[in-house]
Amino acid sequence: MRNRRLLLSNKATIFVILIILLITAAVAFGYKVSRNDNKPPIVTEVTNAPEPSGEASRVADELSMAVLSVREMSCSGCIATIKASLSGIQGIKDIVVDIGNGKTQVYFDQAKLGDINRLAESITASGYPAKLLRVLTPEEVRKERELAAAKSQYYIASVGGWDIARSDFDTELGVAKRRYSKTYGDNLFASSRGEALLENLKAQIVKRLIDEGILMQEVYKSDFKIDGEIDKELQAWLRNQGKNMEDFKKSLNEVGYDFDYFKKKFETKVLLNRYLNEKILADASNEFERQSLFNSWFNNSKVLAKVVYYDKDLEKLAQRQSQGGSCCPVK
Fold first, then answer.
1. Helix or strand or coil: residue 197?
2. In this model, does residue 229 exceed pLDDT 80?
3. Is residue 47 part of a domain?
């Protein structure tokens, strides 16, 4: 009984943080969009975020890049403030602010910039605590772009070496489109509203996969494993859902999921449940402490994670999606 309560507690924690239970929650609730309404709402278009001017791309062979963690950002107003704080520094050619991941990339001419620490100091002085994470030379910037171009056919991004397969993204997008088309009709995505919805779906899926990658790269860095237990866990989960394997596979096919894909995602969920419970949340005495510990650990992992997008179009969508929150407080 104690083990059963522990397993349910673990599942509840992961569900609350909404990181990777997309598939298992979908199966458990009959692949409904929510527990209260079978019809998924049309997502409204997100606010456009500023995009790179393009000069960094044209002169990439000459520019270095600084990556900084920046805290307390929440909206486009924050972006404007951060860019303004750097406007008086010579040598800066382009600034890309990623609110969703708490990062800012600054492309610059090293010969003109001088002391690199000025970047973090200026941003911090504007009200957004900043820390320099790493600096890439022009050659390293060039290599990263060449690598991204080569890998984009198979992966959409990498988080600390954890590659996110394009096939995973395509599977999730296909299932989402199928769900909405079933509710609103096959011509939904041919309309302007449907096109806006599709852009939002892509951004939401990318964010989920990136968040999952942040978690998984932390797990793999610790060499944490649960070999040989996945089949037992899956059988126990199916019994708890009141399903047999044959009917379950049939239900997966109806919504567009391949069983092998589901099993891979299920293994990820089980691995994360165990890791969080044994390594991160072991000292928590109640659910509030568990949530606080997780938030602190995940936010720190997010700041330190090296996220490299191979698909630049999806990167822009993800950055736009991160601008949809409420505006920042007055600094």
1. helix
2. no
3. no
Same domain membership, residue 81 and residue 211: no
| Spatial contact of 310 and 148, defined as CB atoms under 8 Å apart | yes
CATH number at residue 59: 3.30.70.100
CB 272 within 8 A of CB 20: yes
Return d(Cα 250, Cα 247) in angstroms, integer.
5
Provide CB contacts within 8 A for 39, sequence distance 6+: 33, 183
Does position 15 have pLDDT exceeding 60, yes or no?
A: no
pLDDT of residue 61: 64
Q: Which of 40, 18, 3 is nearest to 178 (CA)?
A: 40
CA dihedral 238, 240, 242, 247 (to 10 degrees): -10
Helix axes 230-241, 259-275, angle to 10 degrees: 100
Q: What backbone phi and psi angles, to 5 degrees, belong to 64?
A: -95, 170
What is the extent of the structural domain holding 10? 2-39+153-310
Question: Averaged over 108-136, what is the pLDDT?
Answer: 94
* Helices and strands (H and E) in the chain: how many: 14, 7
Residue 250, token pair as written in the block: 């049939």
Predicted confidence at residue 322, as pLDDT, reads: 66
Answer yes or no: is pLDDT of 118 > 90: yes
Cβ-based neighbours of 211, under 8 Å, separated by 6 or more: 19, 20, 302
> How many CB atoms neighbour CB 299 within 10 A?
13
**Structural domain count of the chain:** 2
One domain, residues 233 and 294: yes
Structure tokens at 22: 């997309």
270 and 191, same domain (yes or no): yes
Q: Of all residues in the chain, what percent carry a pLDDT higher than 90?
A: 50
Q: What is the pLDDT of residue 227?
A: 72
Q: How far apart are CA 90 and CA 108, in angstroms?
A: 9
Query: 179-207 burial by CB neighbour count: b if 16+ within 10 A, else e?
Result: bbeeebeeebbeeeebebbbbbbbbbbbb
Describe the strand order of the beta sheet including 103-108 as a list of residue ranges. 92-98, 103-108, 64-70, 130-136
Residues 173, 234: Cα–Cα separation, whole Å = 24
